[in-house]
Amino acid sequence: MNKKVISLAIGGGLIILGFLAYFISKGNFEFLGYAIVVAILLSLVLYSDKYINYPAISLWLFVIWIFLHFLGGALFIGTTRLYDLILIDVVGSPYDILRYDQVIHFYCYFAISILVYFISVKYLKVKKTTTLVLIMLSALGVSAINEIIEFGMVIWLDAAEAVGGYYNTMMDLVTNLIGAVLGTLVAYNFLDKK
Asked: Which residue among 5, 100, 103, 160 is least enclosed by CB atoms within 10 Å?
């Protein structure tokens, strides 16, 4: 393992373990489940680095997302969980724009699409514009899996309103799309050494 991967593994591992202990102490089974999924995802990303050699910034963006994700489930501002906090009241119910949740979904798929970009340009032998579309669609595929996992957590916890219902899911997918498009464009224009 190179120094980049070791430092990210330690940083990401400490974040996950710290929040895991917190969620266990609070009996927060929703985020306990997420901690397991995120630990597996981080392991896959770090393992794949030996084949892809991601730019360090792309891995750090991913680890920062892990911290912000768990912070959203752990921190309360008064009685409002950070994930439910409206940061700027642009559009009210049922869309509730702009919530912390939407910002984190945008950021997550911004970071994910950058990782997917570097996997794609290494293994796909197609025109760059086609590759960019495939990267965005791949990042959206990851986001769909995320929404399926959220749905699974709702079923497991028997908590129909745990993650906000249909409008929340659709807003998640919209912000995931925006993040994936911008992340792909940033990777292509600024991070890829071509």
From this structure: 160
Contact yes or no for 38/46 (Cβ under 8 A): no
Structure-block tokens of residue 108: 């997550």
pLDDT band at 155 (very low <50, low <70, confident <90, very high): confident
Domain count, the chain: 1
Q: Are 139 and 116 in contact (CB under 8 A)?
A: yes
The CA angle 51-116-142, to the nearest 5 degrees, is: 120
Residue by residue, DSSP assigns 84-137 as: G-EEEEEE-TTT-EEEHHHHHHHHHHHHHHHHHHHHHHHH--S-HHHHHHHHHH
Q: How far apart are CA 153 and CA 120, in angstroms?
A: 30
How far apart are the C-alpha atoms of 40 and 20, rounded to whole Å?
14
Q: What does pTM read for this prediction?
A: 0.91
User: Is the pLDDT at 58 greater than 60, yes or no?
Assistant: yes
| Contacts for 130 with CB less than 8 Å, ≥ 6 apart | none
Structure token pair of residue 186: 């940033």
